Amino acid sequence: VQLVESGGGLVEAGGSLRLSCTTSGFIFSNFPMYWVRRAPGKGLDWVSVIDEVGRTHYHDSVRGRFTISRDNAKASMSLQMSSLKPEDTAMYYCATDARGSRRGPGTQVTVSS
C-alpha cells in the first residue's frame, strides 16, 4: 500500500491550495478516503472523508472552505482548500482511516497571517 501527498506550500491567509493524493497497492474504489492533519505540537485530527460513492463529510473547522474529491479511475483524491487561516497550518496526510494509521508521508501547509 502506498499513498503519496503533494501540493502543500506556503500561502497567505485567505489564499488557496489544492492537495493531491495518489495511491497504489489496494483497491482504491472499495475504500472511504480521509484527509487528516497534524498541527505543530498537536495530534492527528480528522479533516474530511469521502466514501466510495462520493458522499462527503467535513470537520466543522473546515466546512464551507475545503472540498474533498476523488477519482476512482485514477486511484487518487484531492482536497481543495480555500479561505485558508493560520490555524490550518499543519502537515496534511491522506489516509484510509480516520485515525490516519495508514497514511502517506504528508505534505506541509503553512498559512501566514
Mean pLDDT: 97
Largest sheet: 6 strands, mixed
Radius of gyration: 13 Å
Structural class: mainly beta
**Strand segment count:** 10
- Encode the helix/strand succession as letters: EEEEEEEEEE
The general outline is globular
Approximate helicity band: under 10%
Low-confidence stretches: none
Strand line-up of the largest beta sheet: 2-10-9-4-5-6
Give the end-to-end Cα distance, rounded to a whole number of Å: 37 Å
Count of helical stretches: 0
Strand content: over 45%
How would you describe the overall organization of this protein?
With 113 residues, the protein is mostly beta strands. Helices cover 0% and strands 50% of the residues. The chain contains no helices and 10 strands. The strands form 2 sheets. Strands 2-10-9-4-5-6 form a 6-stranded mixed β-sheet, with no helix packed on it. A hairpin with a 5-residue loop joins strand 4 (33-38) and strand 5 (44-50). The radius of gyration is 13 Å and the shape is globular. The chain starts with a strand and ends with a strand. 31% of the residues are buried. The model has no long low-confidence stretch (mean pLDDT 97).
Q: Summed up, what is this model?
A:
This protein is an all-beta fold and about 110 residues long.
